[in-house]
Structures are given as structure tokens and as C-alpha cells.
């Protein structure tokens, strides 16, 4: 299932009918005035305002006056988003109607481009990572507004994530590193971590870990008298044979040949 279930730009009349959506609807007003209400709470939206309508929240939408209006509407599947991004806080924000079924973001012009991006992906196609990135621009901006102490800037998240994971690998390559655990520790799926990391470095996290281990083992093989078993243990390989196989793949020679050549 897609993350972005619908994304469109509208200038057509609104039918004044109360309704709900299984997924989360987000509305962005480009120009004009629109009223959204659930019979108890009411929001008058105008230029650059954004409103998140949570999953299964009953609501009614109508123009607030007779002037022309233009708006973006996108519908995001919070369950599919959760599958790709392990962040229960974002999922809760989109589905929990315990306190309020609406989240109002006033005057947020920076989101215009994100809604255009979602519409382009929906109309022309895009992979799950493109959908995830576009959806997060909006979801994260709204989340930051209601939870200002928890910062999550989607625009730079991939670079920050890659930098964090790279630093961790470089400092802890000798340990038994699990890529799935790295992803969980950074609140993302393995698929998203791999995609973001490879886009920045040209390698997957697993490939980068192997690269760092081989580079460090190469230094110890060529410049120390440590046994190969000790080197493999100090660089994160499971055994000397595993290290030998990887070294041969990377350098075209066995550890013995490398040491003899030096």
C-alpha cells in the first residue's frame, strides 16, 4: 500500500457534507477562506494555513465566504508510514483523537513546496522512499509545532541520519553491530536507513561497516606483527577465515600475501 493515498490541488466548490477518512487528511490553503468543523470545534483557515485532520475524525468543510479559494489536500496512510518509519509519536499524532481530532498550523508557507511534491509523486509515481520523504516534510513540521522540544527536520534528516550512523560505525566497528538495531535506535526502518545511507555514501550501512573493518585490518596486517586471529577479533570479524575472505575480496590478496609484500 502507498504512504500517500491521495494528493491533489483544488479550486472546485466544496460540498458541505460531514464525513470521515480512514487515513489522515491534511489540508493546505493557498488562497481564500475555508471553515472546517466537527460540530463543536471550528477552524477558519486562510492563506498558508494548514490543518491535519486525524484518522476517522468526523468533519465538515465549507467556504467561509464567497471569494475564490484554492487548496491542496493530501491523504496519508499512517499505518503504512509507521511500517516505513519506526516513530510511534508521529503515528499517534495522526490517529489519536482522544484530545483533539485536529491539529492547526497557522501561516506555514514553507509547506507549499512539500504539498506540490506530494501531488507530483501521486500523479506521476514515485517509490516508497520518495513518498516517505515528501510526507515527512509536512508531518514533521506539524509535529515540531505541537512538540517544540522534540526537533525533527525532515529536510536534512537523511544527511543527519547518515552522519550519525557513519560516526557510530567508525567508532564501534569492532563490536557486533546489527544494522536492524542501528535502524531501530534511530527510529527508522532498515529499508529507509539503507536508502538514505546509500544516497549519501554510495554504500549500504552493511557495506560501509565491512569497508571500515577491512581498512583497519589492512593497517594492522601490514604494520604490526599481531596474529591474524587477534586482528580479526579486534576489527569485528567473526574469525580469521572470515577476515581473510573479506580482505581477499577488497585487496585481491590474502592477509599472508599482504604481510609478506610489506
Structure description:
With 262 residues, the chain is an alpha+beta fold. The chain is 48% helix and 16% strand. It contains 11 helices and 8 strands. The protein has helices at residues 78-84, 88-95, 112-124, 128-146, 157-172, 179-185, 190-201, 205-223, 228-234, 240-251, 255-261, and strands at 4-10, 24-31, 34-37, 42-45, 50-53, 60-63, 70-76, 102-105. Strands 1-7-2-5-8 form a 5-stranded antiparallel β-sheet. The chain has a 3-stranded antiparallel β-sheet with strand order 4-3-6, with no helix packed on it. Helix 3 packs antiparallel against helix 4, helix 5 crosses helix 7 (190-201) and helix 8 crosses helix 11. The protein is elongated.
The ordered string of helix (H) and strand (E) elements is: EEEEEEEHHEHHHHHHHHH
Task: Give the biggest beta sheet.
Answer: 5 strands, antiparallel
Give me the count of strands: 8
Q: What amount of the residues lies in strands? A: 15-25%
Instruction: Give the overall shape.
Output: elongated
The proportion of residues forming helix, as a percent range, comes to 40-55%
Instruction: Output the number of helix runs.
Output: 11
Task: Give the secondary structure arrangement, pairings included.
Layout: E1 4-10, E2 24-31, E3 34-37, E4 42-45, E5 50-53, E6 60-63, E7 70-76, H1 78-84, H2 88-95, E8 102-105, H3 112-124, H4 128-146, H5 157-172, H6 179-185, H7 190-201, H8 205-223, H9 228-234, H10 240-251, H11 255-261
Helix pairs in contact: 1-2, 3-4, 5-7, 5-8, 8-10, 8-11
Amino acid at each position: 500500500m502507498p504512504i500517500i493515498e491521495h494528493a491533489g490541488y483544488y479550486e472546485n466548490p466544496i460540498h458541505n457534507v460531514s464525513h470521515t477518512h480512514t487515513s489522515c487528511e491534511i489540508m493546505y490553503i493557498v488562497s481564500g477562506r475555508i471553515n472546517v468543523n466537527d460540530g463543536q470545534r471550528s477552524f477558519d483557515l486562510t492563506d498558508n494555513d494548514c490543518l491535519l485532520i486525524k484518522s476517522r475524525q468526523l468533519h465538515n468543510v465549507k467556504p467561509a465566504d464567497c471569494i475564490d479559494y484554492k487548496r491542496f489536500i493530501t491523504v496519508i496512510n499512517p499505518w503504512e508510514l509507521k511500517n516505513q518509519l519506526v516513530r510511534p509519536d508521529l503515528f499517534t499524532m495522526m490517529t489519536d483523537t482522544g484530545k483533539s481530532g485536529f491539529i492547526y498550523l497557522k501561516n506555514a508557507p514553507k509547506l507549499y513546496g512539500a504539498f506540490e511534491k506530494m501531488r507530483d509523486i501521486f500523479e506521476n509515481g514515485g517509490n516508497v522512499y520518495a513518498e516517505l520523504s515528501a510526507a515527512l516534510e509536512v508531518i514533521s513540521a506539524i509535529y515540531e509545532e505541537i512538540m517544540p522540544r522534540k526537533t525533527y527536520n525532515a529536510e536534512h534528516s537523511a544527511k543527519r541520519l547518515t552522519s550519525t550512523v557513519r560516526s557510530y560505525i567508525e567508532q564501534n566497528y569492532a563490536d557486533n553491530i546489527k544494522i536492524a538495531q542501528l535502524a531501530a535506535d534511530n527510529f527508522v526502518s532498515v529499508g529507509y536507513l539503507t536508502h538514505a545511507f546509500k544516497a549519501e555514501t554510495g554504500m549500504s550501512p552493511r557495506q560501509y561497516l565491512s569497508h571500515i573493518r577491512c581498512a583497519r585490518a589492512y593497517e594492522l596486517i601490514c604494520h604490526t606483527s599481531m596474529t591474524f586471529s587477534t586482528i580479526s577479533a579486534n576489527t569485528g570479524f567473526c574469525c580469521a577465515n572470515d577476515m581473510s575472505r573479506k580482505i581477499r575480496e577488497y585487496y585481491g590478496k590474502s592477509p599472508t600475501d599482504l604481510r609478506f609484500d610489506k
